[in-house]
Amino acid sequence: MSPFASYLRALRKQRGLRQKELAHMLGYEASYWSALERSEKGPPKQDFINRLIRGLQLTEEEQATLAQALRLSRRHFSLPSRASEREYTLLHQLEPQLGHLSPLQIQLIELALHIPAGQDHHVQPSA
After folding, report:
1. Which of 48, 64, 78, 111 has the lowest tally of Cβ within 10 angstroms?
2. Whole-model pTM?
3. In terms of domains, do 68 and 83 share one?
4. What percent of the chain shows pLDDT beyond 70?
């Protein structure tokens, strides 16, 4: 489940609303709202976000959390032109695993990403 879907569900539950009630209140179909909460739809357009902010009267803190959840829920990425061939290969090895990674695999990847640049001079590139 995406961070946006999780936060959307949390906001609705905090307000004690059902999906159908909130969807109707904001002018959407309940099926669309349900698909958003299940991550079956990608993050919505700005009009939806504006209606959500107004309809639920989100605080500045809630709006900031919503914006962060939207950023983290982006589904499409572009590799920068400066990416190395190994980075391209790594991304393509990771892609089919997404949605199936174990908590340990995720933790190990997160740990590896926290190694400061330049600290990996002892690691030999794989063949």
Report:
1. 78
2. 0.74
3. no
4. 93
